[in-house]
Design goal:
Layout lengths: L9 H21 L2 E8 L3 E8 L15 H11 L9 E5 L5 H9 L4 E6 L2 H13 L1 H4 L4 E6 L7 H4 L10 E5 L8 H12 L28 E3 L16 E6 L5 H14 L1 E9 L2 E8 L7
Parallel strand pairs: 3-4, 3-6, 4-5, 6-8, 7-9
Antiparallel strand pairs: 1-2, 8-10, 9-10
């Protein structure tokens, strides 16, 4: 008899990832939290509670990754270049620090911080309470449980007049290749982008010619800090700003590029710190559904 190994299906892989996530959520929630602080734009100090340790290997939403602080500074210095959006959605918010800093340092007035991890949802709420005096009473900062690929109705109900969203943000969201498709499905829903068929599905016409560069590929651009004084044209419609503390690998980079190309998102990458790369995905002309 010849033994033939059974390769896992995509569904099996996703179930395995989900099980690992749930295990990680349990251990992260059980760990003790420490209160720390960070200085932000405008001479303000934001406090937050998180696991006071290096991020774990399974799931690490309740730790603080370096990129969140750096992307908050990057956005705060350039908010007008993004058209001064009034509403912001954060995906995979973890500690909620990115939303809290943006609420304290930008003109936006409505924030929805989301996460799939129930422990992170509670932690975000706790961190919002810690910073109520810094954020002010004129800002709305709420928390919603949201899994990528699920309905975004729980989020958009908080700002129906501003939907589709003008600004979606996230930091260190890609921890395995399998989460990329559902992540970008959620981004498309929030930005009001008409998503074509995924590769291999009926109606898909996005297969790249051999040797050609996908529309969503990275163009690494060095930037200065503080921001340049030369005027920059505002981004006319929606943007997804995604920060990275670490290299996600070639396979995940290729999947991100494919998703961006399929959705018609223009991608620009900048290195803002030695521990932070920021990718901005903007909605191409004619792709947004208003």
């Amino acid at each position: 008899m010849c033994y033939r190994p059974c390769l896992p299906s995509d569904e099996d892989i996703l179930r395995s990832v989900s099980a690992m996530e749930e295990l990680g959520f349990f251990f992260d929630t059980a760990q003790s939290k420490a209160t720390q602080s960070v200085d932000v734009l405008g001479g303000k100090t934001v406090s937050y509670r998180s696991i006071d340790d290096t991020p774990g290997h399974v799931i690490s939403g309740q730790y603080l990754w370096p990129a969140s602080v750096h992307v908050a500074k990057y956005l705060g210095e350039r908010w007008n270049e993004f058209g001064n959006p009034s509403a912001v959605v954060e995906l995979g918010a973890g500690t909620g620090l990115l939303s809290i800093i943006l609420a304290a340092t930008t003109s936006a007035t409505k924030f929805v911080a989301t996460d799939h991890d129930p422990g992170s949802v509670l932690l975000i709420e706790e961190n919002i309470e810690l910073n109520q005096s810094i954020v002010g009473t004129d800002k709305s900062l709420v928390v919603e449980a949201l899994g990528w690929g699920e309905s975004v109705a729980p989020v958009t109900r908080h700002f129906p007049a501003e939907f589709p969203a003008r600004m979606v943000v996230g930091s260190d969201l890609i921890y395995c290749e399998e989460v990329i498709e559902p992540l970008f499905a959620t981004v498309a829903a929030l930005l009001g982008v008409a998503a074509p068929a995924a590769p291999g599905e009926e109606g898909d016409t996005t297969s790249a010619t051999a040797g050609s560069e996908p529309q969503g590929s990275i163009a690494e651009v060095p930037i200065a800090s503080p921001p340049p004084t030369a005027p920059t044209a505002p981004i006319p419609s929606g943007a997804f700003v995604l920060a990275f503390s670490f290299d996600i690998g070639e396979a995940s980079e290729a999947r991100v590029a494919a998703c961006a190309a399929r959705l018609g998102l223009e991608r620009r990458s900048v290195r803002v710190h030695d521990k932070c790369r920021v990718d901005t995905f903007t909605v191409g002309t004619g792709r947004r559904i208003d």
